[in-house]
Structures are given as structure tokens and as C-alpha cells.
């Protein structure tokens, strides 16, 4: 497998995100990798890159030198030349970045209806991502898991029993409704969108975090797991990326494997 | 005060949301009201309207007669004539609906940079909305508050002490950075956007849900509470709406007043 990036286009997109973990930055990486788009993963590629991440979310920042607002939290995307008066544009919030890149990289459907469905489905997949996070941090994002473990056991039980089937069932129905065009491989229309890459990563993360729960359920959602999940990860661009050392392993981010939170 | 709607434009937008509560549907209502746009609040305006809400999120629906995917949850927006082949378009997910209407109703800034900042800030305000919800439902959205009250007390404490100042401080900085153009009245640029209406409603809801906490803190965020909050609610369109019987009172939705969760 090649670990070299394919290079297709300018502008030189810069991802501002924490190093090492996949985290929410991964949703942005996947759209670049799926389209062979050159980008700079700034904190993973340069020693001082973390400083740019910290700077865009600095608690004292009101507006940056290029006229951009501060980021509430990473990920952020910097696009030199695309901001006010030819300066750098900085965007934050994963769905906003995906919406921007979806238009630029042709990952947002074929017309206005599809464009908005893609955003809707990506937001729903990101809601599932966020609910996964809250299984291990149901009380405080700033406290240790060990200090909210009792509550985490309760929240994870509800998540596994009620929320996972609700989300999986929803996406199975979307794939079914779009099957005449998408053949079970795409949520919207005939081609890959950022809704597909976003949902794929959440499913991949859930397989890591809740392996027993997902294994017990996946046969109930054949389009989602047999058709969609396998076809997305085999796509040119994504396949090479997922086998490369640019794909960061899960650790202590959104998707964590605590066996006690999984199905027993 | 008039309780009649101003009427400006077609198409005949239809909001599909639960009756009686403000809920997430309120973010959509506010953009219509702020722009004097005609819309049908279907479950509040017609006896059978609730059936359309239930139908768009039906657990068996894969695709509707007009080619739209099911909604994961309300709110949804139906726009007759704007879908595939001149059929009805149905969108779901609050930020996706706001993004769509922002373009149509001129509430999304003046250029591409501003458009994406508006979406980013609206998403952040909606994150605060969602975290507010989780203060009374930290374990299970499907269970009663009374059955998760111990955990709610812990989560609400963290929310009040850590999350509220983080979000308020962030928006204060955004208003400060944009002050040369927005004069403390707008998050982005020179004019009203759906980021403004969205943040306003979340602040209004927090004043209802956590009155002591907000009162104790608001002096620390003068642009947010003295300039921004008061100016948005005085705007033509919004002012009349907020005084009308179309504005639903808070009850058992996202924003609930449980005195025990507020600052003691």
C-alpha cells in the first residue's frame, strides 16, 4: 500500500486539529483523502503545528489578523486566499467545514435537494458521534471517565439498547429508500458524499468502542453493514488512506473501548 | 401588538414540528418571523397537522412520495415545488434547515466567508441548546427527569460552572471581534443572520431555565446581554412575534425550569 498522498488541487487546505487522535478532525481528513485532495494536517505534519491549533481557539482571541472569528473548538480549516480581501479564511465546526468542502470537492450531491440531504444526514451521523462521546462522559467533559463511571454505565446501557438501534434503523431506511440510485452504497443519489464518509467513520468507531454490541446487531441492518460500510472503505483514496500511517489509531478520543460499557 | 403574520413571499414554507412547545422548531420560526416570511406552522395551525409530523419521521418510511428521505426527528421543512421534478422538498435537521433558509431569506451574511461563519456560530449556539437539554436528561432521553435527577444535579452543576462561561465567553469575544461592523448587535458582519436569532433564543431559554445563574453572570458579558440580546428582540418582526400568541411558552421541552438545577 502506498502511504503517499495523491495531489489534485489547490488551494492549500490546512486542517487545524489536535495531533495523534482521529477525533472530529477525521471527518475532515476523510473528505480530502476520498477525493485525492492535497491538504496539510498541520499538527501531525509539523513540530510547531499545535501552536496554530491553540492560537485559533485562544481564550483571548476576538478576531484574527485576517478578520476571522475565533474557533470555539477544533477542528478548524484554514484556506489561504479564500477569505476577506484575498486573506486566509478560517472556518470551524465540523458540519460547517464539511459543508464548505462538500461544495468545493464535489461531495455534496448533484442538486440543491441532494446538497441539503447530504448535510442533514451528516449532521445525524455527527449526532451519533456525539452521543457516543457522552457514553463515557455523561456528566462532565472536563472530568475523568473514572470519576463518572457509574453514570457512564447507565448512559451506555441506554445508548446501546435505545439509541444505537434508532440510528442504525434510520440509516438502513435511508439506504433502502435510495437503493435504486445508490445501490446501498450511498445515502444520497448516485455518488459518494461527505454524509457517506462521515457515517462510515462513526460506524468504524462504534465497532471499535462497542464491538460486542455492533456484532450482535449488524445482521439486522444488511444494507448498512454489508453493502454501505464495506463499499465505502474499499473506495480508491480511502482504501489507501486507511492502510497508511496517516490514519491514526483510536485511543482516548470520542471512540474508546471500555469493555464494561459494551454488551456483556 | 398585532398577532397577524406579515406576508412577504412564496413558496409556501411548511414547518413540521411538534405542537405547543417552542423546542427546536423555534429556531426555524424565528427566521420566518424576523424576515416577515409567510409560513405554515402545520401542527399548531391545523387539527390534523400532527399527522404530517408523524408521517415524515415514521419508523417504516424509507422514501416519501416526492422522493425525500425520512426525517430522523422533527423539525422538518417542506417546500412545495422545490424538490425533485418540481415536487415537494423535505429537509430535516435544524442546522440544515437554517442553512437552506438562510440563503433564501438573506439571513446568511454577505459573502461566502460570512455564510460559513454564520453556520459555524449557529451550530455552536445549537450545541449550547443541546447541552442545556442534557442537564435534565443526562442518562436517557427516553426516561423521566425524576428517574435521572441525581445525575442531572451533577451535570447541571458542571454545565453552570464550566460550560455556560465557556459559551458566553466565546460569543462575547465574537461580538467584540465583529464590533466595528456589527456594533455588538450581530455575530457576523453588518446585518441580522440566523446565527443571531438562534443564539438569541438559546439565551432566552437559559434565562428561563437557569434564571439565577444567568443573572449572576450576565454583567460579565456586556456585549452579549446588554447590546446583542436586547437589540435582537427589539427588531421589527421579532418584537411583534414575541408579543404574539404564536410564541409558545416554555414548558417540558429543551428549556425547563427546575429550581434545584439552578444556582443555589
UniProtKB/TrEMBL annotation, chains A, B:
PROSITE patterns documented for this protein: GST_CTER, GST_NTER
Keyword flag Transferase: yes
Domain GST C-terminal: 111-251
Domain GST N-terminal: 12-109
Gene Ontology biological process terms in this record: glutathione metabolic process
Segments forming a coiled coil: none
Lineage: Eukaryota, Fungi, Dikarya, Ascomycota, Pezizomycotina
A Pfam short name: GST_C_3
Protein name stated in the entry: Glutathione S-transferase protein-like protein
SUPFAM superfamilies hit by this protein: GST C-terminal domain-like, Thioredoxin-like
Presence of keyword Lipid metabolism: no
Alphabetic keyword roster: Transferase
One GO molecular-function entry: glutathione transferase activity
Amino acid at each position: 500500500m502506498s502511504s503517499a498522498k495523491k495531489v489534485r488541487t489547490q488551494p492549500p487546505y490546512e486542517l487545524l486539529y489536535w495531533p495523534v487522535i482521529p477525533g472530529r478532525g477525521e471527518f475532515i481528513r476523510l473528505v480530502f483523502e476520498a477525493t485525492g485532495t492535497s491538504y496539510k494536517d498541520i499538527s501531525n505534519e509539523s513540530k510547531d503545528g499545535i501552536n496554530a491549533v491553540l492560537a485559533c481557539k485562544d481564550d483571548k482571541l476576538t478576531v484574527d489578523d485576517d478578520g476571522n472569528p475565533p474557533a470555539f473548538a477544533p477542528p478548524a480549516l484554514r484556506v489561504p486566499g479564500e477569505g476577506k480581501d484575498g486573506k486566509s479564511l478560517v472556518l470551524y465546526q465540523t458540519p460547517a467545514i464539511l459543508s464548505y468542502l462538500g461544495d468545493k470537492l464535489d461531495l455534496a450531491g448533484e442538486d440543491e435537494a441532494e446538497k441539503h440531504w447530504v448535510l442533514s444526514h451528516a449532521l445525524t451521523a455527527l449526532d451519533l458521534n456525539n452521543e457516543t462521546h457522552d457514553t463515557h462522559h455523561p456528566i462532565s467533559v472536563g472530568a475523568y471517565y473514572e470519576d463518572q463511571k457509574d453514570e457512564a454505565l447507565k448512559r451506555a446501557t441506554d445508548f446501546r439498547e435505545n439509541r444505537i438501534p434508532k440510528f442504525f434503523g434510520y440509516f438502513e431506511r435511508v439506504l433502502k429508500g435510495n437503493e435504486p440510485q445508490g445501490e446501498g452504497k450511498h445515502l444520497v443519489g448516485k455518488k459518494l458524499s461527505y454524509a457517506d464518509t462521515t457515517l462510515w467513520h462513526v460506524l468504524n468507531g462504534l465497532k471499535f468502542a462497542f464491538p460486542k454490541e455492533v456484532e450482535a446487531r449488524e445482521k439486522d441492518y444488511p444494507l448498512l453493514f454489508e453493502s454501505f460500510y464495506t463499499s465505502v472503505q474499499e473506495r480508491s483514496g480511502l482504501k489507501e488512506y486507511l492502510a497508511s500511517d496517516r490514519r491514526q489509531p483510536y485511543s482516548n478520543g470520542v471512540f474508546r473501548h471500555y469493555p464494561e460499557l459494551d454488551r456483556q
